[in-house]
Amino acid sequence: MVVGFLLEEPVGFGVAVLSIIVGGRLGYVFFYNFGYFLHNPLEIFAVWQGGMSFHGGLIGSILGLLIFCRKYKIEYLQIADLFAIISPMGIFFGRLANFINLELYGRPTEGNFGFIFPNDPLLLPRHPSQLYEGIFEGLFITIALLLLARYTKIQDKRGALSGLFLVLYAIARAIIENFREPDAHLGEFDLILFSATMGQLLSLPIMALGLFVIFRKRS
User: pTM for the whole thing?
Assistant: First the structure.
């Protein structure tokens, strides 16, 4: 019934799409290039020039879904669990598009599986990190959640699938960031004992949120 309602209700689809786009763009603005957009605020609306953040899109989708569920009096976690199973395949196809568009390529590698991206000014063999992300953040998480939903009773605990998706994504993103070329204007952040990219830092609160959803007390 819930799935049918979402498919038939254009408002729900519109809210989902708009919240992802707005969240993804604002996430990129604030997380990745705030200084530039602070001095060029009109460029925020130039989405055709690229610049979207998955973490921002995730935040936007969470808020958009919350507004939608409150308006139509639908249980939030029930819908969130549904989207948790669907969303990873969106990540898979999105990363595949990144690879085809020759963007967000990886760090240099001496391995035999390195790709030379023609738009790389150094023309070095690099990790196809877009494919790594598509496989581990998208395909593998989809398979894992589908198997759990099919063969376990995880769906009896509302929010468990959603929380698990967040945790698995955060872990996969943090690992794959080691193969992805950091943003040139950001580089890596030197912490006390190690260096981290912005993607890794943003994955920490995502993991914390996922663990909270999984282990929160249920009435």
Answer: 0.86
